[in-house]
Amino acid sequence: MERSDIFILCIEDEQEVLDAVVRDLEKLEEQFPIETANSAEEARQVVEKLISDGKKIGLIVCDHILPGDNGVELLIELHKDETLHSSRKVLLTGQAGLDDTVRALNEARLHHYIAKPWTREELLEVAVKLLTDFVIEEEENILPFMATLDAEKISESIRTRRSISDE
Questions:
Q1: What secondary structure does DSSP assign to 20-36, as a single string?
Q2: pLDDT digits (tens, 9 = 90+) for 41-92
Q3: What are the C-alpha distances in Å from 88 to residues 134, 164, 165, 167?
Q4: Structure pTM?
Q5: I need a labelling partner for 116 at 20 to 30 A (CA). Which of 19, 63, 80, 162 fits?
Q6: How far apart are CA 56 and CA 6, in angstroms?
Q7: What is the distance between the alpha carbons of residues 29 and 7, in angstroms, rounded to a whole number?
Q8: Domain 6-119 is classified in which CATH homologous superfamily?
Q9: Sign of dihedral through CA atoms 25, 126, 60, 65?
Q10: Domain layout of the chain by residue ranges
Q11: How far apart are CA 60 and CA 11, in angstroms?
Q12: CA 82 to chain centre
């Protein structure tokens, strides 16, 4: 399986929690390289480097409580960047109140909220669903993603695209 130019970015300030997130997503790493950041500032640097290298960020998993800006503020800021508009965003937290969650939904186009503690199955299922939607929306050739992502949904998209372009 070939690595894609689509990255997963995990932002979490507690190293053991960050390690758990990466471990839970490792099944996807063969195709979707994972980058990590321990703060909002570090996340900005990682994003800047990936974008300047011509890479895409398909999924951002972000904790709410971070040193400096909180995760909601960071997700809102990242969403304002044109190159990250279609990136799928997940808020992973045990701390966010309703107001922060609503702001993330409305202003950062949050795609999913996962409460701590989560299960590996839950995080992986959400990641697969969101990355499947991302590649269908953003990639020309989605066939290489069938083995890793939602094969049924990708297959349906390929059939639909073919029928539209064949007419």
A1: HHHHHHHHHHTTS-EEE
A2: 999 999 999 999 999 999 999 998 888 888 889 998 999 999 999 999 999 8
A3: 7, 26, 27, 32
A4: 0.91
A5: 80
A6: 5
A7: 9
A8: Response regulator (3.40.50.2300)
A9: negative
A10: 6-119
A11: 8
A12: 16
Q: Which two tokens stand for residue 82?
A: 């044109």
Q: Give the distance from CA 95 to its chain's centroid.
A: 20
- C-alpha span between 145 and 140 (Å, rounded): 11
Contact 135, 123 (CB under 8 A): no
Task: Provide the token pair at 5.
Answer: 């130019």
Encoded amino acid at 69, one letter: D
Query: Which one is predicted more confidently, 102 or 20?
Result: 20
Q: Which amino acid is at 137?
A: E
CA dihedral 87, 108, 116, 59 (to 10 degrees): 0
Q: Order of strands across the sheet with 56-63?
A: 34-37, 6-11, 56-63, 88-93, 112-115
Of residues 104, 102, 73, 70, the one with CA closest to residue 90? 104
φ, ψ (nearest 5 deg) of residue 119:
-110, 155
Spatial separation of the C-alpha atoms in residues 122 and 94, rounded to whole Å: 15
Q: Which residue has the tokens 């990250």?
A: 84
